[in-house]
Amino acid sequence: MRKFTSFVCGTGAGLAAYYLQRLRDPQTAVQNSWTNSDKPVDPWALWDSNWDCREPRALVRPLRNSQPEEENRYNAELEKAKAKKPRHIILVRHGEYLDAGDSDATHHLTERGRKQAEFTGKRLLELGIKWDKVVASTMVRAQETSDIILKQIDYDKEKVVNCAFLREGAPIPPQPPVGHWKPEASQFLRDGTRIEAAFRRYFHRAYPDQEKENYTLIVGHGNVIRYFVCRALQFPAEGWLRISINHASITWLTISPSGNVSIKYLGDSGFMPASLLTNRIPRDAKNVV
């Protein structure tokens, strides 16, 4: 049996190496037949199963030999390192706010923004989720949105984690570039490092001792949420600005025990009246409802 297993493993490794070599070789690579592109499939577009550095095989000491005792040790440690249940991460963008003044302290929700947050809280309550953790950006508009939602979902405000890493910013230079928004390179370096750190803090598969499905609510910002979506789905992170999400909308990502990630909602705001649907910041009181 061990010889057969070794043969299968060796054959599988050989086929994988052969397949990757064919992908890298433009003369033999498989073409994207469903497009007009003459470029081969990019081997780096393949899913990285160890994206969160929690792939069990990466955590367990490799087999030292083919002895039964060593194989038993390896299999036992591998099983112990495996996640058993999925994690659900629900991201909510803050409600509409008035961009008045140069300080975050003056950026309060508009009346429409407060109504948006209330509708979102009611929607989350209707989903019947029992929250394991609620995290909110420390910016005023996110804090106010979080407070309104908490009243609807009956979650203790004292248990909320307030995280400065989730503050709004410029995660990475977008592709294609846009003419109306050009932060300095230093801002991308400063904000991008922080936002990436937030992604690594909150996005990972479940711990092996997690015995039930886990639900985390994160109240944050548009740029951060869009970047998180690209990173979690292993899409090119530079494409984050191509996504538009409404104020107080819901984005739901699920991380399976295997590390695979799927998206259930992206910027869902269909539970709000059409009069409350906004995604841009009003610059003066004339545009505020």
How would you explain this protein's 3D organization?
With about 290 residues, this protein is an alpha/beta fold. Helices cover about 35% and strands about 10% of the residues. The protein folds into 2 domains: about 40 residues, no CATH class; about 200 residues, Rossmann fold, CATH 3.40.50. The chain has a 6-stranded mixed beta sheet with strand order 3-2-4-1-5-6, sandwiched between helices. The radius of gyration is 23 Å and the shape is globular.
Which labels suit this protein?
single chain; 289 residues; alpha/beta; Rossmann fold; six-stranded mixed beta sheet; 12% strand; globular; disordered N terminus; disordered C terminus; His_PPase_superfam; EC 3.1.3.16; hydrolase
Q: State the fourth-level CATH superfamily of the largest domain.
A: Phosphoglycerate mutase-like
Q: Helix/strand-derived class?
A: alpha/beta
Task: List the uncertain runs.
Answer: 1-11, 15-20, 26-30, 285-289
Beta-strand percentage range: 5-15%
CATH class of the largest domain: Alpha Beta
Total domains, how many?
2
What sequence of helices (H) and strands (E) makes up the elements? HHHEHEHEHEHEE
Give the tally of β-strands.
6
Rg computed from alpha carbons, rounded to a whole number of angstroms: 23 Å
Biggest sheet features: 6 strands, mixed
CATH architecture of the largest domain: 3-Layer(aba) Sandwich
Report the principal-axis shape: globular
